[in-house]
Amino acid sequence: MNYIEEAKVMYDELVAIRRDFHEHPELGFELERTSSKVKEFLKNEGIEYYETAKTGICAIIRGKNTGKTVGLRGDMDALPLMENNENRSYCSKVNGRMHACGHDAHTTILMGAAKLLNKMKDELQGNVKLFFEPAEETTGGAQIMIEEGVLENPHVDAVIGLHVSEDIECGKIGIKKGVVNAASNPFTITIKGRGAHGAHPNAGVDPIVAACNIVNMLQTLVSREISPVNPAVLTIGYIHGGTTAQNVIPEDAKIGGIIRTMKKEDREFAKKRLKEMVEGAATAMRTSASIDIEESYPCLYNDDNMFEMFKSLAKNLLKEENVIALDEPSMGVESFAYFSMERPSVFYYLGARNEEKGIVNPAHGSLFDVDEDCLPIGVALQCKAAVETLERLINK
Hints:
The chain is an alpha/beta fold. Helix content is 35%, strand content 25%.
């Protein structure tokens, strides 16, 4: 089958679907309209599905041989951001919300793949599950979907995911072996002191000064305690303390930030040392500290065999010069990581940049857009990857 040509037949339909989602962005788990549109589409195509993770959807296409199953994932949620692409006919119609990360394209591609795979289900050497994930931009719907059993009944043997990239030219893809994305641990630190008049600091215990010292000290966790050859980032996102009064020492101060690491060992070490450093610094300054470190997204790993398989089929489909080997992992996080921790997986970046069309702006920005010519390419890659993965699993 010529997957590219088959997907191109759906081009107008894919564009219409993507633009509809783009005009009506929804956030987090509150994806009632988006989810209903996906379910309506699946119903019309005769594809069975069930609801999961509140507004998430797990659909299944059952092939002639039901012994093996591969999963395809697409995320659906938008961002709380005002879009500034007024010159686009499909600009967001929802104030303060925007598909600024391409999840509208991801959902559309998964729907297109569902349609094409369902047409050829009698030729499939197994099943294909379709994971429409909510809340990727927040807490990650993937973890809940997994907890609710989407990887079982039937058992999923491998999972494939993608993300559009504004840094890669449309018509090309980027793929990395090994670690693709970092793990993250958001944290909140509350420093308790004792309030006093600003003229008499000796009568109180200043939590703001303690907080400032903690912020400075935490920078050494990466620069002096984690190997310089291992990527790691510690970012302080906010520090709050006091009111608008300039002559009042407050009772407490709060610090919020996030740790990003590429190795499990570094992740555990960083959490341990952050706690030790904060408690030590707080005690030294006669304050007390409470520390909340969240377990957020894990590292995203590409399975070696899945990576080689996908790289080979992508070169066959797109030509070798259009498959870019990425050297560096991203310090950003991706909830597909939860799938990669459970099953052999491959995750790649689908080029969506087009300088001639002015589609060059970064994700999570108010001018972000994608070259819609990437939509059939994504559909073709997902379908071919699902088919070849099933064939390899059967012949293993």
